[in-house]
Here is the input.
Amino acid sequence: MNIKKENTYIFSTDEIVPSVGQGVIAVESRKDDKIIQVLSKLNHEETAECVNLERALQHYISGDCFLPLGINAEIRKKNIICKLFLQLEERESYLKLNIEKKLTEQTALLDEIKEKIDSYRKSEPKGSHYLLH
Here is the structure.
């Protein structure tokens, strides 16, 4: 393949919000396996925290492979930033969020996002888009 650098473009998470856990490497083992001690040295706490937040939101939404859903959490300094894109079936509108809170306020972050998701689920203004920050 003769692909040149000028034929590429790297999208930001502001343009396209990736799927939950996108780019994360996960290793699974049995509960009582001795390998867990070895694998725990590879664990990156910040990444695990972000993926756990993303998965909690995906579970709340009941998201699956067929739902247009992107959730990306990122820790920067002492803040956590969560970006979300959601378009429920049969809807023209979508929900796009970009919310930042202090790392110590993750529960408040989850509650705020859940509240905005619930609001989006309840209303459907035809042809409009929800952009909430």
Notes: The CA atoms of residues 29 and 85 lie 32 Å apart. The domain at 9-132 is CATH 3.30.160.40 (Double Stranded RNA Binding Domain).
